[in-house]
């Protein structure tokens, strides 16, 4: 069902249909309309892959074509024919056809003039769509343009979907367009991370940086005299060592780590959507998880720092990378390397350079580090290492680094940092600051990867700086596992990834086709709702907003609905038996569970009790209302008996903060896990 905002903007979409390409996210570099009729997407359309180049690349052109076919079927609700591999004469294609091919003679350039394989040409006529690039990845981004045009055209309400006739030539401005998620301080299973990859790809984001090891920061536990609280402070390493591995003790929580097969499956899914996983194992700071395993390696007085002067330290770190480097298919990895002791600058620089050489010699991969200004009069970080800038004045000024010959990625926190649920003193927004992104740069032109400061133009550089690689936005989880559910993380990322995708691909007011904020605001809700290959919004079929309504149910009964995303209202009557007053599940789904005891929600491995005890052998009516910001229950239709599920977060070890929590509805199974009692009148209705 269309939102009010979406309904209001449809007229703008319809008016654009007659004039050319619909404004999409990210915008294309150029479009030249033709006088030919538009291409109609109908059931008989064929996707044809040029047989001469079908197997080229990894993923191959054929691999990308198969994903494209599935996506096109989803967004058009049309059963597209299987992908066909052929070598037809392009001028005599049978109709209607979408032809994918590679021409290595074609060349595309980034804003700095460096060549890129991510550019493509898209030629649309009444009879065909032809996507040509110099490599399979370029063709893939061309298919995203077709998919988005189909989605936007379908939003007009017409049963016929047309792609505007004309020629598109499109390239990204920068080669790194990524997002980082702190998975070291918050556990996420690979199914969710895979869906995030697929969603980000829809907006032509090409990297997913996994900050895969870290610890909560509690100064009293870490640095207090004689305090050994660091031994139990939450710290995690997410790659699960093989059975019998010399690294086995590094992962005490096996259920909060990824097996090699799970990680590789996720990595393959991301790659098939044009996204490279960039793993980060953070050392020599942020290393509490290693020191909890091997306390002899810690720096005295700083349990989260490695002591680099101990002979065993660097071989231990190399031994960790030795086991996990073969897992990773990306050409780069991150070793973190931020916020270390400036008094040990030479030790730090020697470590970073040694790890760079070792990883390259071992795997052929290069490394990245977070920007850290480690003052030394004698040593410097190798220029083979990419610096990921994040802070003024905590690291070297990025324009100076680039002038000195370093490759730099922009992750400046004032533009690009988010933090889960609660940021100390509102330091970071819940989604990227739209006003800042669209008009917060000097001159009001908006942010782009060449912009590092909103108030000092001397800290910014030109779009064509040869040492500016691009940008990565970041979402941190400083408050740990219990602060957010995984879908609250998605809600922070959803619009943020889309606006970041536009700016990281097209820049700000560089191209005449770049989106305005009003154009983005029209396109985003349509594209978010229709992004194929995932269902992070947990949209389910409903009739008149009713998902289901069961008058009677039996314990263990299952439905076809695994989970329902907010906003929703879930209502039921329950009479627990005195035989097992605090045992069992009321409801279970793929994203959450609701336990009888204290009406406790379980999500992402955490328990969130409501604190309400259901009376025994008596019927109680419970109505659960959920939005993306909160979840509350009304008991027995009494509005004065309104109770919110909350979570308690430890903020830097200084104070505790209470926050509301949002849950997807556990909609799949009724009763279970030794529940004794009766449930009836179960319904889920969309909206609160």
Protein described:
The chain is of the alpha/beta class and 688 residues long. Helices cover 24% and strands 26% of the residues. Strands 10-11-14-17-18-19-20-22 form an eight-stranded parallel beta barrel. A seven-stranded mixed β-sheet has the order 1-9-6-7-5-3-4. The longest helix has 21 residues, at 486-506. Residues 1-19 have low confidence and may be disordered.
Task: Write a brief structural summary.
The chain has 688 residues and is an alpha/beta fold.
CATH class bucket of the largest domain:
Alpha Beta
* Count of the domains: 3
Tally of separate helices:
14
Structural class: alpha/beta
Low-confidence stretches: 1-19
Main beta sheet: 8 strands, parallel, barrel
**Lateral strand order in the biggest sheet:** 10-11-14-17-18-19-20-22
Pfam families: Glyco_hydro_20, Glyco_hydro_20b
Signal peptide: 1-18
Domain Beta-hexosaminidase bacterial type N-terminal: 25-170
GO molecular function, one term: beta-N-acetylhexosaminidase activity
How would you summarize the topology of this molecule?
Blueprint: H1 4-17, E1 30-33, E2 39-41, E3 46-50, H2 61-76, E4 84-86, E5 97-102, E6 120-124, E7 128-133, H3 136-154, E8 161-163, E9 166-170, E10 176-182, H4 190-202, E11 207-211, E12 213-215, H5 219-223, E13 235-237, H6 260-271, E14 276-283, H7 288-293, E15 298-299, E16 302-306, H8 313-324, E17 332-336, H9 345-363, E18 366-370, E19 386-389, H10 398-403, E20 408-410, H11 413-416, E21 417-419, H12 434-439, E22 468-476, H13 486-506, H14 517-530, E23 546-552, E24 557-558, E25 563-564, E26 568-576, E27 585-588, E28 593-595, E29 600-603, E30 606-609, E31 620-626, E32 631-635, E33 642-644, E34 646-651, E35 655-660, E36 665-666, E37 669-672, E38 677-686
Helix pairs in contact: 1-14, 2-3, 4-6, 4-13, 8-9
């Amino acid at each position: 069902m269309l939102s009010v905002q979406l309904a209001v903007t449809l007229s703008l979409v319809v008016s654009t249909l007659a004039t050319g390409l619909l404004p999409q996210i990210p915008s294309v570099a150029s479009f030249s309309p033709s006088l030919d009729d538009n291409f109609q997407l109908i059931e008989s359309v064929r996707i044809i892959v040029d047989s001469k180049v079908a197997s080229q690349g990894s993923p191959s052109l054929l691999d990308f074509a198969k994903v494209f076919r599935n996506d096109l079927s989803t967004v058009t609700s049309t059963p597209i024919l299987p992908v066909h591999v052929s070598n037809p004469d392009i001028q005599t294609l049978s109709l209607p056809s979408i032809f994918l091919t590679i021409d290595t003679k074609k060349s595309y350039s980034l804003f700095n003039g460096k060549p890129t394989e991510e550019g493509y040409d898209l030629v649309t006529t009444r009879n065909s769509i032809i996507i040509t690039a110099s490599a399979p990845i370029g063709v893939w981004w061309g298919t995203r343009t077709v998919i988005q045009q189909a989605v936007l055209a379908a939003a007009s309400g017409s049963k016929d979907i047309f792609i505007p006739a004309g020629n598109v030539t499109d390239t990204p401005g920068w080669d790194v367009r990524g997002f980082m998620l702190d998975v070291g301080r918050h556990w996420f299973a690979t199914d969710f991370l895979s869906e995030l990859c697929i969603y980000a790809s829809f907006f032509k984001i090409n990297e997913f940086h996994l900050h895969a090891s870290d610890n909560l920061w509690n100064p009293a536990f870490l640095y207090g005299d004689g305090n050994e609280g660091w031994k139990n402070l939450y710290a995690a390493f997410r790659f699960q060592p093989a059975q019998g591995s010399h690294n086995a003790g590094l992962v005490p929580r096996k259920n909060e780590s990824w097996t090699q097969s799970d990680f590789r499956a996720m990595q393959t899914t991301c790659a098939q959507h044009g996204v490279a996983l960039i793993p980060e194992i953070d050392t020599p700071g942020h290393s509490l998880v290693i020191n909890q395993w091997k306390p002899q390696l810690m720096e005295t007085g700083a349990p989260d720092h490695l002591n680099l002067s101990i002979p065993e330290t660097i071989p231990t770190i190399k031994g960790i990378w030795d086991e996990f480097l073969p897992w990773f298919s990306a050409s780069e990895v991150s070793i973190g390397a931020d916020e270390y002791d400036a008094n040990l600058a030479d030790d730090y620089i020697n470590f970073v350079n040694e790890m760079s050489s070792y990883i390259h010699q071992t795997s052929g991969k290069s490394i990245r580090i977070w920007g850290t200004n480690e003052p030394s009069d004698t040593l410097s970080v190798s220029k083979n290492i990419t610096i990921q800038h994040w802070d003024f004045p905590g690291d070297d000024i990025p324009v100076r680094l680039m002038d000195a010959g370093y490759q730099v990625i922009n992750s400046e926190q004032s533009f690009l940092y988010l933090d889960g649920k609660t940021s100390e003193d509102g330091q970071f927004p819940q989604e990227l600051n739209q006003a800042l992104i669209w008009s917060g740069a000097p001159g009001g032109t908006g942010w782009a990867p060449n912009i590092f400061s909103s108030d000092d133009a001397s800290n910014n550089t030109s779009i064509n700086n040869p040492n500016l690689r691009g940008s990565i936005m970041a979402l941190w989880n400083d408050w740990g596992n219990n602060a957010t559910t995984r879908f609250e993380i998605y809600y922070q990322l959803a619009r943020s990834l889309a606006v970041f995708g536009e700016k990281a691909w097209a820049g700000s007011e560089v191209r005449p086709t770049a989106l305005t904020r009003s154009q983005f605001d029209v396109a985003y809700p349509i594209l978010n709702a229709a992004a194929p290959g995932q269902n992070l919004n947990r949209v389910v079929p409903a009739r008149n907003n009713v998902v289901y309504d069961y008058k009677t149910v039996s314990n263990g009964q299952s439905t076809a609905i695994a989970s329902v995303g907010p906003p929703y209202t879930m209502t039921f009557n329950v009479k627990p038996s005195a035989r097992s007053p605090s045992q069992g599940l009321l409801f279970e789904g793929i994203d959450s569970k609701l336990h009888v005891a204290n009406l406790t929600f379980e999500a992402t491995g955490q328990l969130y009790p409501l604190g309400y005890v259901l009376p025994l052998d008596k019927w109680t009516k419970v109505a659960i209302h959920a939005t993306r910001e909160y979840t509350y229950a009304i008991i027995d239709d009494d509005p004065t008996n309104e109770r919110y599920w909350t979570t308690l977060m430890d903020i830097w070890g200084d104070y505790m903060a209470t926050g509301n929590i949002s849950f997807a509805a556990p909609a799949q199974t009724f009763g279970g896990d030794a529940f004794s009692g009766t449930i009836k009148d179960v319904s889920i209705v969309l909206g609160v």
